[in-house]
Amino acid sequence: MHAPIEDGLEGYLAGKPDSEFVKHLGECAECRQTVALFEDQANMIRAIRVDEQMEPGPGFYARVMGRIEQEKSASIWSVFLEPLFARRLMYATATLTLLLGIFLFTSPKDDVAEQMLSHDLPPSTELVDADQDRNTVFVQFATYQGE
């Protein structure tokens, strides 16, 4: 389709063709055939257009909403919102918390750090500065061999 036809097609289909469009249409057989196809399609669309406002039948909206609800996919989070699952999850969490608390309060205390600090510290006859004292503790931690 050529440029004059592309530019003036809407006006022609609306019933107001411009002179350049009509002139080109008289000269070009290919464009005449294309415009004829467009006219046929426009006439078919006008034929199926309803002049009066249509209202949906009774219960239409209820049927549509019911169908939307049926086809709506279940979310993964909906499982957690079910009352039975939530109750079971609550009981399992409470039991786990209780067991962890019992384990923490009844487990034997490890005094590893205390043993490491009291293990063969070098004798201190003179005052030691803080950096040297810190280095001594680090060496003790690094070289500690458990008994």
The oligomeric state is: single chain
DSSP summary, beta strand count: 0
User: Taking all residues together, what is the mean pLDDT?
Assistant: 79
H/E element string?
HHHHHHH
Count of helical regions? 7
Percent strand: under 5%
Distance between the termini: 95 Å
- Class of secondary structure makeup: mainly alpha
Notes on the structure:
The chain is mostly helical and 147 residues long. Helix content is 66%, strand content 0%. The chain has helices spanning 3-14, 19-27, 29-48, 60-71, 83-106, 112-117, 130-143. The longest helix is centred in the middle third of the chain and has 24 residues, at 83-106. The mean pLDDT is 79. It has a domain at 3-48. The protein contains seven helices and no strands. The protein is elongated and about 115 Å long.
Write a brief structural summary.
This protein has 7 helices and no strands. The protein is mainly α and 147 residues long.
